[in-house]
Amino acid sequence: MNRVLSGIQPTGELHIGNYLGAVKNWIEMVKANETFYTIVDLHALTIPQDPYQLRTRTLATAASLLALGLDPKRCTLFIQSHVPEHTSLSWLLECTASMGELSRMIQFKEKGGKRESVKVGLFTYPVLQAADILLYQANQVPIGEDQLQHLELTRDIAKRFNHHYSKVFVVPEAVLPKHATRVMDLQYPNQKMSKSGNSSLGTVFILDEPSVIERKIKKAVTDAGSEVVYDPKKKPGVSNLLELLAASLPSGKAPTELAGDYPSYSTLKAATSEALIELLRPVRRSYTELISDQSELEAILKMGAVKARGVASATLSVAQQAMGLSV
Ligand code: TYM
User: Cα(262) to centroid of ligand 1, in Å?
Assistant: First the structure.
C-alpha cells in the first residue's frame, strides 16, 4: 500500500485548477492507499493574512474538499498547524538545505520579486513543504505541475539527509493527473490559473453558479484562426479549453482526440461550459450543507490531527536521533 501526502493552501474557495490538477487525484487515491491531506495554514502566513479570514477560509477549504468528494472516513484530513511536528522537522531540514537551492525556487522568485519587503518564511516555505511530505514517509505526492520544483527539492533534501545521517526518509514521487496538469487563466492563457489572477473572468471557482461559468467560458480568450487544434504553443487558449474539457468529461478522451469533435471555437466553448457546470453542480449543493455544520467539520479535522500526529511524531523522533539530538 502506498503512503500518500498532499497539501493545499487555505484560500477558502478552490478553483478548477486545484481540483483538476490535484484534488481529483487525492479523491481517487483514498481508495487503495493510506492517505494524508493537509490544509497548510502555516504556509499561508508567508503573505499578509487577516486572522479572522484565515480561520474562516481554513474551514471553508475543508468543506470544499469534502464537497468535491473527499471521504474523511477513508483519509486523514488535518490542519497543518494542529501538528506541531511540521515546524519542528522544518527546522532540522533548514539546517540541511542551502540558500542557493532555495533562491532558485520559481514560486519564491514570482511572489517575492513583486514585494518590497519579503518575509523570511516566504523564502523557507519549500522546506516546510518538504517537512510536510517527509514526516509521513509518503512515497506518492499528488500535485499539479507547478509544484514539481518543490517536490524535486524535497527529494534532494531527503536524499542528502539519508546520505549524511542515516536512512530516515522515504524519497517521494510526484503523481500528476493525465490531463490538466497546469490549468491556465482563461483571460491570460500563458499564465497559470490562480485565485488571485489578473482578471475576475480568468478563474473558474468550484462554487461558481452555472451562469457565471457560462459567462467565463464564453469570454475566454481564444487564438488566431478558427480551427480547433490542440497546440499549447501556437493555440494556448483553445488548448486550455480542450484540457479542461478532457479532464471534466468521464469519457477519458485526450485533448487531441476531442479537438476533431468541434467544428468551431463556439461549439468547443459550449461543450466545455456544459461539462464544467455538470461536474460542479453537486459540489455547490453539498458545500452549503457542509459549511453550515462547523462543529462537524472541526471534529473531522481534530480527529485527523490526532491520527497525523501519531505518524509525524514517530518520524520526527527518528530524524532527531539521527542528527544527534538527545531525545
Ligand atoms: P496550492 O494551494 O497553490 O495548490 C493546491 C494544489 O493545486 C494545484 N494547482 C493547480 N493544478 C493545475 N493547474 C493550476 N492552475 C493549479 N493551481 C494549483 C497545485 O499544484 C497543488 O497541488 N505549496 C503548495 C501546498 C503544499 C503542498 C505541501 C503540496 C504545502 N505542503 C506538501 C503537496 C505536498 C501550494 O501552494 O499548493
Answer: 31
Please report the DSSP string for 34-98 in residue order.
EEEEEE-HHHHTTS---HHHHHHHHHHHHHHHHHHT--TTTSEEEEGGG-THHHHHHHHHHTTS-
Beginning with the edge strand found earlier in the chain, give each strand of the sheet holding 34-39 in spatial order.
76-79, 34-39, 3-8, 140-142, 173-175
Q: Given ligand 1 and candidates 4, 5, 8, 140, which is best to mutate, with the most ligand atoms within 8 Å of its CB?
A: 8
d(CA 128, CA 124): 7
**Ligand 1: which of 83, 93, 108, 147 to mutate, most ligand atoms within 8 Å of CB?**
147
Average pLDDT for the chain:
96
What pTM was estimated for this model as a whole? 0.97
Specify the pLDDT at position 112.
Answer: 78
Place of cell 523522533: 317
Dmax over CA atoms of the chain, in Å, equals 69
195 tagged catalytic: yes
Please confirm, yes or no, whether 216 is among the known catalytic residues.
Answer: no
Q: Return d(Cα 173, Cα 140) in angstroms, integer.
A: 5
Query: Is pLDDT above 90 for 115?
Result: no
* Structure confidence by residue, pLDDT tens digits, 250-264: 888 999 999 999 999
pLDDT, tens digit, for every residue of 152-205?
A: 999 999 999 999 999 999 999 999 999 999 999 999 999 999 998 888 999 999
Q: Give the cell for residue 71.
A: 471521504
| Of residues 214, 224, 230, the one with CA closest to residue 271 | 214
pLDDT tens readout for residues 49-62:
999 999 999 999 99
Ligand 1: residue whose CA is nearest its atom 37: 8
Q: Ligand 1 centre and the CA of 148: distance in Å?
A: 10
| DSSP assignment letter at 192 | B
Determine contact, residues 37/7, Cβ cutoff 8 Å.
yes
Distance between Cα 11 and ligand 1 center (Å): 11
